[in-house]
Model the fold of this input.
Amino acid sequence: MLRAGIFGMQQDGAPEESEGKKCAWKGHKARMQMRLDKREEYVMSEWKQLWLQYHPVADQGFGAYAGTVVLDGFVNTPVINSLKEEAARGLKGMLGTEPVFADQAEGACIRIRRVDAVASAKAEEELSENQKTESYRILVTPEEIRIEAAGEKGALYGTFALLRAIGTGKALQEAETETVPSNPLRMLNHWDNMTNDIERGYSGDSFFFKDGTVIVDERTKDYARLVSSVGINAVVINNVNVKGDATDLITDRYFDKLAAMSEIFAAYGVSLYLSLNFASPIEIGGLDNCDPLNEEVIAWWKGKIAEVFGRIPNFGGFLVKADSEGRPGPFTYGRTQADGANMLADLVKPYGGTIIWRCFVYNCTQDWRDYKTDRARSGYDNFKAMDGDYHDNVILQIKNGPMDFQIREPIHPLMGGLRKTNQMLEVQIAQEYTGHQIDVCYLMPMFKEVLEYHTYCTNHPEENDRQKEGAGDQVKDIVSGRTFGNQKSGMAGMAAVANTGNDANWTGNDLAAANLYGFGRLSFDTELSSEEIAREWAQLTFDTDKEAIDVIVRILMGSRATYEKYTSPLGIGWMVTPGFHYGCSVDGYEYSRWGTYHRADHLGIGVDRSSHGTGYAQQYYPENAEQYEDPARCPENLLLFFHHIPYTWKLSSGQSLIQYIYDSHFEGYEEAEGMAKAFEGLKGRIPEDSFENISGRFRLQLDNAREWRDQVNSYFYRKSGIPDEKGRPIY
Ligand code: GCW
Done:
């Protein structure tokens, strides 16, 4: 019996399967069964410490200071205790020293010192309270390594930063830094169900829930350590599709366990949030409606929210998926999204709570014959008009693209399109469409593209919008709250759909932990490069030589481009096995209700989203819209997202479109082979269990890449009748 979690079907479930699909599916199941067997071994063993294993390193001079840790201005709170425990663990593991904690030191020491502020007074004017107390400075003098912070979380993050510097072999002076978190909120969204499985989870079952109970154990603490070590400060533990027992998470049935979990999180600076079922008044309140403007409903929520904040310490608020993919919401009662969000926001406000409201609202019952309706338009169409109508403790959470976490999408036009509403970014490190943590796909290069994208919003001020003087127009400026002034209130940041599960290695493929590590580090410091994050992660994870680290970094850095080559082309996603989203099915979604079409015919492929087509391109500010509007100026890697292009179209490389399809799929497979071969060279240079885990997945990835190459190439050869110039095997 295969575990539902692995074959978790999207709400739509796979459409009736043809014979061909059935045999592809059977083959796939066999491969996945092998993986499941592998997993049993994993789940039985102790879980790994990942980048916190603190393996021994050559001392670059830190040892001389590590004998004594002085707490100067900090008292023994839960967070400071976590700091002390982590410092002791790290210094012992890496340098073999067992630090004494004291109020003063004779000789050299590590001094954790409370200061009034780390950032300049001017910078502090724009920072949230959180960011001020989460900032840290590290100074190195002959007498001491000084970690300075204005708050205990800054001291904790500074300690993790010092341990990272030691673990990555930095020289003493290189440990010096002054770091202010780029984002107020740095959040993980876990789509964990209380039925043990994880929606879009590829790393085992939930470690938060088991058979309808909440798990609080040693792994809860190691989870808090791991996420805190990379600066995550908020976590939603349950699936946004709130169903079954999960609706009860806001009832007395779970408060004690959630309070215990929240305290463990708080000791690492992490706030607990819950995904909320908008229909709770009906499902557990005994009311016959959940209309956000109905007095009875409001009264019920008022009482319920008082209970939740009263019973769960350090509780941050709620994440809400409403009116989306069959979930209940305000639209049911003719109300607006703002009516729903604001009702809840007003009720959590007295407790300092936040409502994070997702913009993933679209028509998921589309007629594939309809060339005008466009799923990509829906976020903007549903939320732009209400800009400024949301209360100040509501944050709209917006996916990086208008569709759904594909390997490449344009940036969501609500980013910067909203000018008077708190907004934050949602990305996915769960590899739902990017390889299920079987195929390696390091996503920080994609997230850097998203964060650095120019929206040109600052060129187009509107009536009483909240644009700050001299603000930046890039996504990183917007989601941090710097552009539209919501940074100070802390109502801004980044969230990632998590890729974890109860596998011993937490992320299915050992290499996928680079995405968990990377999201934390990048959301804390959006100026970090993908490569330095990858290298840091590899050095802390693998106790091995520099060449081996270089191989791992090269594999990670090339993996997104490789995966895109064999699963796209040029902004076309969705050619995945329906519902499951792993493995190739070029027409799987082409006649479905999900609005995810490629519109390939015998002459060309792509969706016309210009003003002559669905008009989606016009949702951007003119500087971007006019590029997307014109196939000759459209960024080529999104050409087929915005236009229906003939196979004979000449790309800037000189290749025809059809030749590019063939070349990119042959290259994609060859690059995947190259990664797997390069990795084989690491045998004996990284721990055996890790080597086995990763090379086993490379074998599956090569199967997958080969299927994609041959199915996509054969599909488009049969459609277009145009042969491959290089005469390679196409079927
Ligand atoms: O990515 C899609 C997934 C659904 C998910 C939904 C969402 C949690 O296929 O599994 O539901 O989007 O983001 O809400």
User: Anything to note?
Assistant: The pocket of 4-O-methyl-beta-D-glucopyranuronic acid is lined by residues 10, 191, 199-200, 240-241, 321, 325, 360, 404-405, 432 (CB under 6 Å). Confidence is low (pLDDT under 50) at residues 1-17, 40-44. The CA atoms of residues 380 and 414 lie 6 Å apart.
